[in-house]
Amino acid sequence: MEQKHILILGTGSVGKRHAINLSSLGCTISCMDPRSDRLEEVKQEIDVVRTYRSIEEAFSESSESIDGVIVASPPVFHVDQSIAALENEIPVLLEKPVSPDAASARRLFDVVKNTGIPLLLGYTWRWWPPLAKVRELLNQGVVGKLRYVQFMMSAHLADWHPWENYQDFFMASKALGGGALLDESHWLDLMLWFLGEPESLYAKVDRISNLEIDTDDNVDMVITYKDGLYVSIHLDIYGRPHEKYIRFIGEEGTILWTADPNRVAVGKECSQKWENYEYDCERNDMFVEVAKEFLSIINGTEVKTCSINDGVRVLSLIDAVRQSSAEGLTIALSL
Question: What is the pTM of this model?
Fold first, then answer.
């Protein structure tokens, strides 16, 4: 594969991860971040061709030599930075969520459509082998007709980036697009990926913990599907021990995915007897697979795993969650 020059916009935790992974895949890396300390941290890990303090500086100096752009900044900047890259005819890998709201996500969708330049969206759990196995099992109908699905994500914010004060992390800031609902929209995306479009939802979004943040830290949803399927989703950023799991209960058994231990289990008896699928993949593996797909897209293949349209659907769902929480009503859905 021909060596590619990739510009990383935002060199916080995920931006630095992308830079290191793409460098290991043979890419040349340049980085933009308004914080010089973060640029220096990346330069200590890999060779960086150029560093910039603004996107305007980056594109004015080197847009013609850039093969791909990764937008890894806080969500409030995602749409404008992605549009700047697309208008320079540069493919984009955009970290999730697309933006803080559906209206701005649709604006980006229109630019992707009008320019014809590809955008890959980084809802990275879609590249996680155990969840791909879950989707395969669901498609095979191994537990019969689904009746109830439970999504659980609970992880204390202070543990996410232990090297920095959590108050300095964009997740603590509503203005930057932080909070449990937006950042953990992974689980809404997975629901749509596994189950398709729901019929209605009731939700409550709140800040209830003693975390020193100005955004939401607790989200609970009850979602219904037309064929008699109920889904519950719980997201919080104050819980310990950390928990991530999804339980699919069908008329003929249950599929259980857990992040820790890293497994998929199928149970069909009244006792706790499970058929286990064990995995040794590590978290960074899915980011490497995202990077590989992005490089393939730069070389001319189509977006396969997660598109801007997927991101717009998630943001439409998030808008409905906010409306339900604000009005105390069940919201009919049309994504």
Answer: 0.95
For the stretch 279-327, pLDDT in tens is 999 999 999 999 999 999 999 999 999 999 999 999 999 999 999 999 9
Residue type, 18: H
Both tokens assigned to 23: 């460098």
| Spatial distance between the Cα atoms of 136 and 160, rounded to a whole number of angstroms | 30
Which residue reads 């009919």 in tokens?
Answer: 332
237 in Cβ contact with 155 (< 8 Å): yes
Q: Where are the beta strands (DSSP E) in 237-316?
A: 243-250, 253-258, 263-267, 274-278
SS3 306: coil
* Pair of tokens at residue 166: 């959590």
3-class DSSP assignment, residue 25: coil
The distance in angstroms from the start CA to the end CA of the chain is 38
d(CA 157, CA 309): 29
Amino acid in the structure at residue 50: R
Q: What is the pLDDT of residues 185-244, one digit of tens each?
A: 999 999 999 999 999 999 999 999 999 999 999 999 999 999 899 999 999 999 999 999
Give me the phi and psi of 220, to 5 degrees please: -130, 135
Rg of the chain in Å (alpha carbons)? 20
Residue 286: closest CA among 74, 132, 178, 136: 132
Which CATH code, of 2.40.50.140, 3.40.630.10, 3.40.1280.10, 3.40.50.720, is assigned to 5-125+285-306?
3.40.50.720
- Look at residues 207, 276, 270 and name the one whose alpha carbon lies nearest to residue 238: 207
Of 234, 143, 139, the C-alpha closest to 194 is: 139
- Residue 61 is predicted with a pLDDT of 77
For position 230, what pLDDT does the model report? 98
Domain edges within the chain: 5-125+285-306, 129-279
7-14: average pLDDT = 96
Phi, psi of 52 (to 5 degrees): -135, 155
Instruction: Find out whether 72 and 12 touch, Cβ atoms under 8 Å.
Output: yes
